[in-house]
Design goal:
Shape: globular
CATH topology of the largest domain: Globin-like
Largest sheet: 6 strands, antiparallel, barrel
Number of helices: 12
Strand content: 15-25%
Order of helices and strands: HHHHHHHHEEEEEHEEHEHEEHE
Distance between the termini: 24 Å
CATH superfamily of the largest domain: Globins
Number of domains: 3
Strand order of the largest sheet: 1-2-5-4-3-6
Structural class: alpha/beta
Length: 402
């Protein structure tokens, strides 16, 4: 599932509050902003108390425990509201694009926005009390539904690209092979026998959400980048991190079945066959880069490609060999290939100024928050003049990198 960002950009920039509501939101944004974290916590607590199935089967409960999901909700509402009342505020398009893709990869449907509205505004009233006058509630209701309708329309378009009704994204996936890449990372290959061709429209860099049944019967969801795909199914790499990944590693054998959603995600390899490509990753962030390299090899054309990866050690770089094989293949096809690796265990750090990197490239980043912030700061301080910088964190609040 994928659409160009232009319709979303147009819809986002057309969103405007009525003049009276704009003044109310502008006046109350500071107090909402100061309390949005508590509002988000109260919202989720209330919604899950009365709808426990949502926590068991839709929301990732580890993200709830860590506070990551609450932080994501708080950031998205505050960012969108700021955009509406401040012409110099943040552009919310990239944030909304990521949210829309995450939502369709979880099978979110329009009716669920009504549920969120009910519990979110109950939480606002509970946290802020008498400060929520009818005028304030009315103004922030408009903020919510402006944002909701932008997302609903974007998600409708995404579902349409796969020719499915909203929410109909789960497919029965059978594990047909697993292979250890390191002591922490294992490659899993699934087939979708009841839905042949379901993954052939995958764009390099996208992910699938896997729904795995936990020991207590809950079906928990987590996104995994697609390493490879064909008309039979797909391959992912799983690192031991969290209960879904641990269940896959410890309790999922060849022949077992899981739920898998149709591919989604807006970190996708661009269509240009002339713009240089720079792929930067740390740790398991190499996974979408492997998918992009596979697509570049399949394209069979000569490209200018730079791969930069940071890991703890050579042994911990789980996708070292597969990356080397793909780069060798690109080299054979006549591509200009640059390879840079650094290992934090040896005290090394990625320093872009020390590397041979072409100017005017499309950059694709995936890794930990601190790593990506460091790389982005280095790009901004350089004369590399990137054509674009695209990133993915695999967390509910990845747009917080701004």
């Amino acid at each position: 599932m994928f659409t160009a960002t232009e319709p979303l950009r147009e819809a986002t920039h057309k969103a405007h509050l009525s003049p009276a509501h704009e003044e109310t939101v502008k006046a109350t944004l500071p107090v909402i902003g100061e309390n949005i974290g508590d509002i988000a916590k109260t919202f989720y607590a209330g919604m899950f108390a009365e709808n426990p199935d949502l926590l068991a089967n839709t929301f990732n409960r580890e993200n709830q425990k860590s506070g990551a999901q609450q932080k994501a909700l708080a950031a998205s509402v505050a960012t969108f509201a700021t955009m509406l009342v401040n012409p110099d505020g943040p552009d919310a398009v990239d944030m909304l694009s990521r949210i829309a893709h995450k939502h369709v990869s979880l099978g979110i449907t329009p009716d669920q926005y009504e549920i969120v509205y009910h519990y979110l505004f109950a939480a606002i009233g509970k946290v802020l009390g008498d400060a929520v006058t009818p005028e304030v509630a009315e103004a922030w209701t408009e903020v919510y539904w402006l944002m909701a309708h932008v997302l609903i329309d974007a998600e409708k378009d995404l579902y349409a690209t796969a020719d499915v009704t909203p929410g109909d994204v789960f497919r029965d996936a059978v594990l047909v092979a697993r292979r250890d890449l390191s002591d922490r990372v294992t490659e899993f290959t699934f087939e979708v026998p009841d839905a042949p061709g379901a993954f052939t429209a995958t764009k390099a860099g996208q992910y699938t959400s896997l729904g795995v049944t936990m020991g207590d019967g809950a079906r928990q969801l987590r996104q995994y980048s697609l390493v490879n795909w064909d008309d039979k199914g797909f391959t992912i790499a799983v690192q031991r991190d969290g209960e879904v990944s641990s269940t896959l590693l410890d309790s999922t054998a060849v022949g077992d079945r899981v739920d898998a959603t149709l591919p989604a995600g807006d970190l996708v390899l661009g269509d240009s066959d002339t713009t240089p490509v720079v792929l930067v990753s740390s740790g398991i962030g190499s996974t979408p880069m492997v998918g992009m390299l596979s697509a570049l090899v399949a394209g069979a054309g000569a490209r200018d490609i730079t791969v930069i990866h940071s890991d703890v050690s050579e042994e911990s770089y789980a996708q070292r060999e597969v990356t080397k094989g793909l780069l060798d293949a690109l080299d054979t096809q006549g591509s200009t290939v640059r390879r840079h690796r650094s290992y934090t265990g040896a005290g090394e750090r990625v320093r872009l100024a020390d590397l041979d990197i072409p100017a005017g490239a499309d950059w694709y980043l995936c890794g930990g928050n601190g790593f990506l912030q460091d790389i982005r700061a280095q790009i901004e301080a350089s004369a590399l003049a990137p054509a674009g910088v695209h990133f993915e964190l695999f967390s509910p609040n990845d747009w917080l990198l701004g």
